[in-house]
User: Fold this.
Amino acid sequence: MNHQLKIAPSLLACDFSNLESEVKNCEKYGADILHVDVMDGHFVPNITIGPLIVKSIKPHTSLPIDCHLMITNPDDYIDDFADAGADYISVHAEVCNHLHRTLTKIKERNCKAGIVLNPVTPLQFAYDAAEYCDFILLMSVNPGFGGQSFIPSFLEKCTKLREHLDRNGLNHVEIEVDGGVKIDNIREVVNAGANMIVSGSGLFKGDLEKNIREMRLAVI
Ligand code: DX5
Ligand code: ZN
Assistant:
């Protein structure tokens, strides 16, 4: 199955003093998903935003909201994010003691469920969890900050995961990439089998409309 390319601007890189217009611009300029980075200062060294912000942007967009939970106790917050309007929720394998239970809980709330692997977290987690996932997010940077450099080992890891999913009747599971993706490397990332493309600084730095358009053109 060839998955549709989905461009997911990471709001972490937007102008938070104009959040409403940034959100509306993402939709107007053809983004497919809004990526929201939730950081707790424990799992990652940074603190960002929570369900309150998800709730406040929800009425201003018809795009699905993708909540990437970089927090140590994701189970405690699934309901809060679902109530706030999340459409996709992903949890890190490194901090989830009961992944099957957590993924099931996310689906019970009618959200798409995903696990996230840090750059050197073994793919075995994804292999074993894939049948309970709608998508798998492979980090191409260490989570915590926007604007970091893409770690090239992502490409081999992503290729392996895509092959595994396709070989095992799990080709409906989508692969999301997050970190350091820009116009000049999106093609490699898509060729490796990712279709949900998160980009923060690669989209919000400069002209958002042009950057979204050029990302799409780069993979044709
Ligand atoms: C990193 C976040 C990313 C980040 C991506 O921890 O999960 O979503 O915002 O930003 P860029 O595209 O600038 O690397
Ligand atoms: Zn993210």
Observations:
- The two ends are 17 Å apart (CA to CA).
- The chain has nine helices and eight strands.
